[in-house]
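This follows on from our talk about sequence and fold. Go ahead and set the record down below:
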Amino acid sequence: MLDILVIAPHPDDAELGMAGAILKFKAEGAKVGVLDLTSGEPTPFGTPEKRAAETAAATKILGLDWRQNLGLPNRSLEATLEARRALAVVIRQTRPKWLFAPYWIDAHPDHAAATQLVEAARFWAKLTKTDMPGEPWHPRRIYNYYCVHLKQAAQPAFILDITPYWDRKLAAIRCYHSQFIEGRPVEPPTFLDQLRDEAAYWGKAIGTAYGEPFHCREPIGMSSMQSLI
């Protein structure tokens, strides 16, 4: 069903970490979905209704083929057996080639728990002789995107050029007004200014205007050098 499934702890994490990549994948003809694990609420200026509307607006900008929310608890996300089963069922139903999850080290406990959950659910999704619905499925690889709560210097495995998609990435992030605009300082550098500067830093590292960094626990195979910048 899907080529790529991005798994996000909260609505807005997929946009922050890899909206540029999502737009690039879509432009290349891939079918891309996002599974938000929690509602992201409560937050200081958000409500469940606001977040749902913001997510719908961002989804439209990204042109996603599929998006759902798993309904797990915000602020207390854990890689429980029940959560593992629920996510494994989604993987069996959507059958993605690749999964994207947050980088496994993060200051936000929900983000670290999300990646632990994704890794376990990927394994469970391939099980036979189980009461889980759907046929067994094992995504080829998990890639990791970086979230804003990371408190260490990232050393990515690769950086993706997102220069043609930066403006649309920013537009998707701006949809989350309650999270990144409302109640935040208006004097520069604003939160959005800092995001731009980070994207420009990663772009500079590969000789482009803007980039998004990614990691992977597993070796990344190559059949050609032609796609390297």
